[in-house]
Amino acid sequence: MGRCLAAYGELVTAAVILAAIAVAPAISFTFLASAARADPPPPPGVSTSAEHLAALTVAPEGAGSGYDRDKFPHWITIAGACNTRETVLKRDGIDVKTSAACAPVSGTWRSPYDGATWTAASDLDIDHMVPLAEAWRSGAASWTTSRRRAFANDLSSSQLWAVTDNLNQAKGDKDPAEWTPPLASFRCLYSRSWIDVKYRYRLTIDTAEKRALTRLLGTC
Question: Which residues 6+ apart lie within 8 Å of 60 measured at CB?
Answer without folding.
Answer: 206
